[in-house]
Every structure is written in C-alpha cells, then in structure tokens.
C-alpha cells in the first residue's frame, strides 16, 4: 500500500523540537517493518532528529516476508532486529505467547482507549486502518449498513479480499463474525448473494472503481485517496462499526538496546509521532490527533471490539470455514 504523501520539512522540525530532550539515549537500533519504504524512512528520520544519539537502520518487506526472515533468524539463534513494526496485532500476539517480545510497562498510553494496545504492554497500536464499504457512484443503492450487502441490489455486485491471502481481511472476518448478530450467517448470506472473495484490497478497489463491481469491502484510505484523484467511488463507515488493524510496534526480547527501543516506541505513540502518521495520510490511533482529509469526524467512526488472542487461537478454523463458504 504505497504512500506518496511527503512529510514537510516544517513538520519534521516541529517534531524534533517537541519530542523531548535530545541525546537521552544512544547507540544503534534495527527496525524490521512492513511499512511502505517512504513511511518507514520518514519514521526513522523523525525519530533520529528527536534522538540524535541513536543511529537507526531498517529492513522493510511485507508482513509475511518480514516475519519469515525474522523466524529464520530466530531459528538460527539470533536476529539483528530490536523493534518490530508490522500490520497486525494477531501476529504480535503470536510472538508474545512465544515469549519473543519484551514488555514495556512504563509506556505512557494514558491518551489511548482500552484495546488500542496489549493490556500487558507487549505491543502498541500506532494507527487505525479500518475496513468498511466502498461503492461505485453509479450504484442505485447507497449502503449504510453491512446488511445492505445482502440486498437484491447488491446481488453479484460485491467484491472483498480473502482472509486466505490478506491479514487485514482475516481480522475483518473475525471482527464481523464476533460482533454482528448473524455471525457466520452474514458470510453465508454474502456467498448466497453472489459475493466474490479473492486477493487483497487493491483488487477490490480496481473492480469497484472500474465498474466491474458496484460494492466492496476495503481498507479506508484506498478509496478515500482515489476519490480525491477523481475516481467514481465513495467510502462508508457502516453504522454497526468497522474492523481495524493497528500497525502495532513491539520490542523484541532479544534487543541489545532496550533503552533506544523504548524511546522508539515512545516516539511512535507520542502526540508528535501520531501527527507524523496523520501527515502520511493515516488515521492516528491517538484520539486527540486530527483525522486525515477526506475522513469523517472521529465520532462517526465506530471501531468494533477485537480480541487478538482469540483471533490467533481461531485463525485456522476461521480460514477453513471461510474457504468452505466461498468454495476456496
């Protein structure tokens, strides 16, 4: 999900000035991340401006590939990674349960609502990337509810990413099943109504923007960004609520520089770090930071509850059931 929004030099200077005393930590730090390259570089540069005694290098790839690299290194006995910043909390929960993460009980999360971070402070959400409904402006029905995708007007016209290939889609499925009254019956209804599940979010956007499908399930920023470019799409935050991935950050238990790693976490969840996320076009996880252009007021965005530990335990069963419903 490539971002092209550049961080202004003025904001960089502001972050440096407000982020606290320089030189409080030093040494080197290695970040493994699934952030887009531009976002990762901006995050690292802003942190080093605020902490000039620390030299940060980062390794970037998709969450699946970066985790495969990390797992191979751990199996071999050591990894250079100190900090991990990836897409979803379910992966972090798996690492926590294997005692591969370091808790940071002193982290200040007082500005955040419960559920944004791990209750035991092993990982910390940095953004809210929600999944809602996109529709083509040629559609006669304007959806406001997940249930609208089961209507006759949406028959054969719904596209969605598959949890077999998309981590965000797996979290979305678990969230809807756990929060909608119909549970798995909602997905059975979608399949009966001709909905198609395949690939990732980019494919959904292409189908709906191109008119091949009129409706879709998709992460928020893709259609909001494309609408601003003139694409014939609108994004809806359904009345029942939306699912969200939080791009969590965590410290690896094997870190050689825990002080610098903690400072990196502090920066990302600070107000200044959250303003950096805003400048990159993301919805910050911290409620006292504004929303990006094109998003509604926070009061209009209801994020459904999600239990990462439960989702981890049920992930195999959930993907198998989804595959059975949609014949995958």
Q: How is the secondary structure organized here?
A:
Elements: H1 9-18, E1 27-33, H2 37-50, E2 54-60, H3 63-76, E3 83-85, H4 89-97, E4 101-102, E5 123-124, E6 129-136, E7 158-160, H5 167-179, H6 184-192, E8 196-197, H7 201-209, E9 215-219, H8 221-228, E10 233-236, E11 243-245, E12 249-252, H9 258-269, H10 271-279, H11 308-326
Parallel strand pairs: 1-2, 1-3, 7-8, 7-9
Antiparallel strand pairs: 3-12, 4-12, 5-12, 6-9, 6-10, 6-11
Protein described:
This protein is α/β, with parallel strands linked by helices. The protein folds into 2 domains: 9-127 and 246-295, Periplasmic binding protein-like II (D-Maltodextrin-Binding Protein, domain 2, 3-Layer(aba) Sandwich), CATH 3.40.190.10; 129-244 and 301-326, Periplasmic binding protein-like II (D-Maltodextrin-Binding Protein, domain 2), CATH 3.40.190. It has helices spanning 9-18, 37-50, 63-76, 89-97, 167-179, 184-192, 201-209, 221-228, 258-269, 271-279, 308-326, and strands at residues 27-33, 54-60, 83-85, 101-102, 123-124, 129-136, 158-160, 196-197, 215-219, 233-236, 243-245, 249-252. Strands 1, 2, 3, 4, 5 and 12 form a 6-stranded mixed sheet that branches. Helix 2 links the parallel strand 1 (27-33) and strand 2. Helix 1 (9-18) crosses helix 2, helix 1 packs antiparallel against helix 10 (271-279) and helix 9 crosses helix 10 (271-279). The protein is globular, with a radius of gyration of 20 Å. The two termini are 25 Å apart. The model is unreliable at 1-23 (pLDDT under 50). This is Iron(III) transport system substrate-binding protein. InterPro entries: Ferric-bd. Keywords: Signal. Residues 1-19 form the signal peptide.
